[in-house]
Each structure stands twice: as C-alpha cells, then as structure tokens.
Amino acid sequence: MKVNQKSLAIVSSILLAGAALSGCAGGNNATSGTSQQKGSEGGSGAAGGDKIVIALVGPLSGSASDYGDSAKAGAEYALKLKQKELQDLGLNVELKPLDDQAEPKQGVVNAQMAINDNDVVAVVGHVTTGSSLSAVTAYEKAGLVMVSPSTTGPEFTEGGKKVAHRICARDDEQGRKAAIYAKNTLNVKNAMVIHDKQAYGQGLANEVKKQFEKDGVSVLGFEGLTAGEKDYSAVVNQVLAKKPEMVYFGGYYAEAGILIKQLREKGFTGVFMGADGLDSAEMFTIAGPAAEGIVFTSTVGDVKATEEGKKWIQEFEGSTGKKLGIFTSFGYDAMAVAINGIEEAAKANGNKKPTRAQVFEAIHKTQDFKGQFVHVSFDDKGDNKNAQVFIYTYAGGSKKFEGEAK
C-alpha cells in the first residue's frame, strides 16, 4: 500500500478513535492509577508552545523492570540533549512514561491512556513483545505510531499493522542465528528447547527449534514452564533424563536464573543458551555461579566496543547518575527516531504542532537515519533493514561480547 493511501486510512482512524475506543480503559481505575507517569526527567519544552507528548511504555516495575527502566533512561537522555534545539523550533516536547509491568493486559490499559491523551503523537515502545502485541491493534485504530526499541516478536510488524515500527532485529532472525551459532561454533548435535509459554519466549523457542531441525540438530524435547514459579524440578528432571548437550531457553532472566541454578545443582553440565531476555545484571544475583558460561544472543551491540561508545557512556552516566542498562542505547535511538519524525512533520506543517497522521507519515518514511548506535531504515512493514544480532557470554561475573552472529 502506498504512503498516501495509508495516510487516508490513518486520518480516518484518528477521527473514529474517540468513539471506537473511549470505553476500553473503563472499570480499571485502580490499575490505571498505578501506571501513570513515573518520574519523568525528560524535561518540558519552551513555555507557551503547543505541548507535544511522546509516551514511553515498558516495565518500570516488576521482574522485567531492568528492560523498561533502561529504555526509559535512554529515551529521557535523548530528549534532554535535543530539548534546546526543539525549543528553538518552538516545539514543547515532553516524555510520558507508562508502566506496563511487562503484562499484556496492562499494556492495553497503557495504550488507551496514551491514545486518550490528545497531546501524545508518538509512542516509544512497547518494550516487551507480549505487551506490544496486545496493544498494537488499539494504536492502529487510533493512528498513533509506535517505535519500539526492543519488541522482537515477528508478529508485531506483520498483519498490516502500519503504525508498528522497531529499530531492533526480529526473533525469527535472532532465533535462526542462535541455532546456527550453536551448531557451527558450539558444535551442538542435540538440544532440549524450553520456553516460558509467553509470546516472546515461546516465539523464540519455535524459531530455534525450526532452525535446529533444518540443520540436523536433534531436538530431544520442547517443553514449557510457568513464569513466576520458583521450582522447576519437573522440567529439570526431564532434561536430566534426556541428557542433551544444550538447553535453549526462550524467556526472561528471572526464570532463566532459577532454571540454570536448579539444573547445575542437579548435575547438568551442558551448554545453556538464550536470547536478550537473559541480559540483566540480576542474572548473577539469581543464579549465582551457575550463570557462568551462559550464552545468549542480543539485538543490541556492545556500546563499550568503541572509544566513541565509551565516551557516550561516560557522558550519559555523568548527566543522569544512572548506569548503562540493556536497552539504554536502543531507548536512546528509538527516541531519536521519534523526535526526528516530529521535527520533520512540524517543518512540513509550517513549524506548527503536527498531527498524529503527520508524525506517522514522517516516521514511516525514515531512511538512512544515523542513530548513535544503530542506523535506521524502515521497510514497508516497519522493520529496520539495518538490524543486527550479536553473541554474548557470562564470564567472570559479567557479560562478555563475542561479536556479531552471522
């Protein structure tokens, strides 16, 4: 579908959004109240200008808060650095963080909060796949563009959802490259694949299983566990009985830490591998020494690999008082893409506050945008044509960058 046709559809959606969606957040006032803006340090723009708001939606509390907090910190820093330039253009841009706790239902509530705020013209997020998938239909109806730093589930940009954009790689690519790395570099001949029964984790596990089977790696089992539990002895016993060379886990660090600890305590000596859901400073707190040797893929490269990156970290930490987290860099670049879209839309609108449709149009057209950490060129689906996948291991109490996964 061509751009002008998409614009007509989205403008129509905006006109209908209030009537079609006004009741979606009703009857949940207590939950919504806890998900309101949480400590925005992004700052406000020039006094007197029409307010423009960018919502950021991610887990700012709960077991996945590392992801939301780090993306939020990066987004706030990006806005802080651009604020003077935006003010000079007469643009009063603010950040509105919303906490979805990585819960799909709360993601829908937060989406409705963003949609109902007429000043919100773009969303950075959602941060997690499950929340993004639950909310994207509402955003599509409202014509409110999304730029996710970290939603990797392929379904996010499939099915004709034009507002959905991401700067990171997809899980069909991440899973495929993880399986190839396991076979070709780690010399794995058989594996057991485990997942957390959630959109992100099970989707990744499916892709790994598919590539293993294509490459002749024997899949000895494909099992799900329940996120949030503390005893995974049932699946641990299955692993011990089947004696795989590798366990691949699709899910997040909270469950992965418990699983690998219990596996090692029971005598499993094989490789343990996962994806960016395992990237957290909390992994060693949860798993202890059992975290050593874990291999994982990530859609985020090593910021410390270059002198420029080291300088950026120093400036970021000095300015914000916060440490670099897993999605700080991609939160920063996703915000930069959103800000660039708003700037371009405002200029095309006579330096006036742009509409949601105009911001969507500008962001969707993004090509060869040189972010600090990733170059962004969106294809027609909203995927970044320049996205990459990388390999890390946990060693010596911290993560070690191994390079790009080919």
UniProtKB/TrEMBL annotation:
Return the SUPFAM superfamilies for the record: Periplasmic binding protein-like I
Q: Which Gene3D superfamilies match?
A: 3.40.50.2300
Q: According to the UniProt entry, where is the signal peptide?
A: 1-30
Keyword Protease among UniProt keywords: no
Q: Which UniProt keywords apply?
A: Amino-acid transport, Signal, Transport
Q: Which GO terms describe its biological process?
A: amino acid transport
User: Per the database record, which ranges form the Leucine-binding protein domain?
Assistant: 52-394
Q: Which PANTHER family match?
A: AMINO ACID BINDING PROTEIN (PTHR47151:SF2), LEU/ILE/VAL-BINDING ABC TRANSPORTER SUBUNIT (PTHR47151)
Query: Its family?
Result: Belongs to the leucine-binding protein family.
What name does the UniProt record give this protein? ABC-type branched-chain amino acid transport systems, periplasmic binding protein BraC
Q: Source organism lineage?
A: Bacteria, Bacillati, Bacillota, Bacilli, Bacillales
State which gene encodes it: braC
